[in-house]
Amino acid sequence: MSYRKPQFRHPRLEVNDLGLTHRDYEGALSTLCAGCGHDAITAAVTQACAELSLPPHRIAKISGIGCSSKAPNYFLNHAHGFNTVHGRMPSVATGANMANRDLIYLGMSGDGDSASIGFGQFAHVVRRRLNMLYMVANNGVYGLTKGQLAATAEQGMKNKAGEASLFTDIDLCVSALQFGATFVARSFSGDKAQLVPLIKAAISHKGFAFIDIISPCVTFNNNPDSTRSYDYVHDHIVTAAVADFVPVKQEIRCENGDADSEDICLHDGSILRLSRIQPDYDAHDRLHAMARIEQVKAEGKILTGLMYIDPEADDYHEINQTTDTPLNALKQETLCPGNHVLQTINESFR
Ligand SMILES: Cc1ncc(C[n+]2csc(CCOP(=O)(O)OP(=O)(O)O)c2C)c(N)n1
Ligand code: SF4
User: Fold this and answer.
1) 15-349 is classed in which CATH architecture?
2) Thiamine pyrophosphate enzyme TPP-binding domain spans which residues (predicted)?
3) Is 68 in the pocket of ligand 1 (CB under 6 A)?
4) Where are the domains of the chain?
5) What's the N-to-C CA distance of the chain in angstroms?
């Protein structure tokens, strides 16, 4: 049995603006269970980065522990990667982002990783508005440790072993909204048509972007009593706002759309075209988004799509007024300008 992907590539394979093919954005062969939702997320991230023509060496992919956190190994072979301790992805992402603000940061985590051991870290990376895309592959269980219920499992949800969740669930989208995220979306790993534009828009968003991706665990949580099974999610999806991402390099019409759609100009000039499925849904209203998520959940359904966006958002570097030059590129003379500068600063406090 071979564990390596074949190197052969057809000479006429389609290339993007950088002359790279889809294959250049792939990673190692997945060792996850066949049919695991996380592999579909891998495919969506690969497609999004290839379509955005991102230089792989400008990307840093950081994850925690879990089957979901293994996923970055299966995309973007040529990117920087760091697999952290369980739940600690946010601090490592923050440190890396402080040292080099110029990379594109992709965080990958699981619902066990983020909603339990890493919940404190999650809260703080959101409120600090680190410029990153934080993805959670949400299967309601701890897949890697054989299916214990996660804190995101709704009260009463049963895993494959028949164990029912006794407690109130943590909804990571509501939490992200409450902690101050400026881009919040939920999607389903089996809905690439929705997920890929959301990933592209989230990467282009300046500030903290969060996507909760329902990603069924076929081995431990794809049973009839689970609200994360493929069948349950297919039958209970309600869409808030459909996002269609338009890169600046293609023709762009930036005028206001009709009543059912709206064009949002992102910071890098890209256009996010929203079409509203629910006529009264307002993706600029944080409180409205939180209330709608809870309301749809109370009806036994799952709200997906772009729930909230603040296109004018700031990020940690702006809030903290850090230097435009990445810290790792600063020269000794700038870092240590000499005693006379220190004297002047001290004088200014007298
Ligand atoms: C400090 C620490 N505690 C516990 C574990 C055991 N552990 C490994 S993965 C995992 C849960 C992962 O669940 P989740 O984040 O939902 O990812 P999934 O495997 O479901 O994709 C746990 C508890 C660990 N590796 N390290
Ligand atoms: S145990 Fe579940 S989450 Fe882990 S690889 Fe298998 S299907 Fe995916």
Assistant:
1) 3-Layer(aba) Sandwich (3.40)
2) 65-213
3) yes
4) 15-349
5) 73
